[in-house]
Amino acid sequence: MTADTSRVESAAAAGSAAQPPARRASAARRLLRDPQAVATATLVLLIVALGLLAPVLASHGPNASSLDHIDAGFGTPDYPLGGDHSGRDIWARLLHSINTSVVSALIGAGIALAVGVTAGLVGGYYDRARSATEWTFSLIMTFPGLLLLIVLMPLTGGDFRVTMAIFGVLLSPGIYRIVRNQVVGVKNELFVDAARVSGLTDLRILARHVLSAVRGPVIVAAAFLCGSSIGVQAGLAFLGVGPASTPSFGSMAAEGFQNLYIAPLQILWPSLVLGTMTASLVLFGNALRDTLEGATPKPAKNALPKAAPAQAGDDAAGEDAPAALLTVRDLAIAYPTPSGELKEVVSGVDLRLETGETLGLVGESGSGKTQTAFAVLGVLPPEAVVTRGSIRLNGRELVGLGERELRGLRGKTIAYVPQEPMSNLDPSATVGSQLVEGLRAASGISRQEARERVLALLARVGIPDPERTFRSHPHEISGGMAQRVLIAGAVACRPVLLVADEPTTALDVTVQAEILDLLRDLQEEMGMAVLMVTHNFGVVADLCDRIAVMREGQVVETGTAMEIFHRARHPYTKLLLDSVLDEETVRTDPPPAAVPAAPVAGGTGKETR
Ligand SMILES: Nc1ncnc2c1ncn2[C@@H]1O[C@H](COP(=O)(O)OP(=O)(O)OP(=O)(O)O)[C@@H](O)[C@H]1O
């Protein structure tokens, strides 16, 4: 347990020592590239610097008055912005008001964050504490904030610092809710479970694992809290809450308002600086949010140049001869990480599939089988980037094809059978209407013709009462039946290539064999090629002519089913085969040693026949 604990801790420490600084550096870089962030941060810093330099920049104190300078005009010597109705230096009061605002922002936002984050962590992490925190913050939210601050004036003595501390508490429910929601989302993640199981204390888990997950939204909210605090402090001062001796944009604006007809500029200066400060903070908060929360970069779907139009019948394999039905060459697929870097999940995959042949794509979970199949279908998620490689079907390059061209191929030339039949059928429409719609979209035939074809197909895939199933909604049929329906839909236009992604995984064992039989029969009948994605060697043995074994985004070995099952060369393939349970296998302890990721020597990373 001690060793495990230290491993988790050191992993977490390594995570926070290595990963986050890179992310922070990158977030800071992105922030620096955002003109809105740079402009607003510069304005805020400039204003804060002016406030800090107030004793140097102003010739008078904020409350020093001179009878000679009552309502002095703009540009009066020593009174650059003039004098107010009490003969005080407007420039000096403006600079000192900045400091009042900054202190208000620090107190208001600081208290709101301290209270909200702490309670959010506790309420989100400990279920038993949640009802108490919920109740408390709901109660706080019922207080009429501004009114309460005015009513409490006799208690606060009008001191803006105490007032802002109370305002911070009133602001804290917003932060509490943000943090609580984040924590509730994070606390059941596997890495938190792992830390818990390893014996880390709750405090450590909260500080190391949970807090890091909530800091983004909290940082963003802090900018808005500062803006609100400044605005409220000025608002209260405008209403006359607090001593007149405290320089504040609010009191300056109130005095300027009284004097509007005599010296209209007096209201302009505090309003201008207050508006610039609060607007800059809010806009900076927006830029911060875009950088930290909407951080996923939007790469092009395809990093490659648009596919050159290729003639059907071109040599699909380029230098390979003869041309195969499907040739995947050096395919690489990557996803952007939060830091903006691309991470490859498929790295240089080569595959070849002949007409009428079944190729099994096997490998452990996460090895890149589905990504490869999705690339062939042209249905990778928008954030995926095909960084290199080629996919040729019947000699036509698919990588770089537009969505319209791909849609023209899908259903007609390439079809797909998914893993989860139920979730691939629309629960609100009948089975028949879904199949008819798909068939008509792919073939353009009339509704009546499509209906007849669908009924014939349903009978062909072994559905006992096609008419009834046609009229049924998906919840009225079994999983095996639903998979038959989807297979019927997939083969309706006699595609040349069927991509089946774990088509039997979600089904009952007895139904699995029937579905495999059906696929085999249909394949023979229609002469389709089948790309069978699976991690089930039983399925592979049952259906596949050839097998490609994937690991960590690469094909490590390919061969005929016979070669792979009887003369597997790559240690990873042997390990996969060894892990297939059968009644003769006696498990040993310790398990076989881990194997290296490299493809087996002899070029089996490349597809050969
Ligand atoms: N949208 C995505 N964003 C980032 N990474 C992704 C995304 N989709 C998949 N991946 C990653 O790509 C890798 C390969 O996933 P893929 O689904 O191809 O694996 P698989 O071999 O089919 O596994 P399984 O048998 O579990 O479906 C995984 O590491 C996965 O985390």
From TrEMBL:
MF annotations from Gene Ontology: ATP binding; ATP hydrolysis activity
Domain ABC transmembrane type-1: 98-285
Region: Disordered, residue numbers: 1-21, 296-316, 586-609
Low complexity bias (residue ranges): 11-21
Chief subcellular location: membrane
GO CC annotation: plasma membrane
SMART domains: AAA
Subcellular localization, as worded in the UniProt entry: Cell membrane; Membrane
CDD domains: ABC_NikE_OppD_transporters (cd03257), TM_PBP2 (cd06261)
UniProt cross-references to Gene3D superfamilies, sorted A to Z: MetI-like, P-loop containing nucleotide triphosphate hydrolases
The keyword Transport appears for this protein: yes
TM helices/strands, residue ranges: 37-58, 102-123, 135-156, 162-179, 218-241, 261-284
Bilayer disposition of the protein: Multi-pass membrane protein; Peripheral membrane protein
Keyword Membrane: yes
Positions of the ABC transporter domain: 326-577
Keywords: ATP-binding, Cell membrane, Membrane, Nucleotide-binding, Transmembrane, Transmembrane helix, Transport
Membership in a protein family: Belongs to the binding-protein-dependent transport system permease family. Belongs to the ABC transporter superfamily.
Identification of the protein by name: Peptide/nickel transport system permease protein
Protein source organism: Actinocorallia herbida
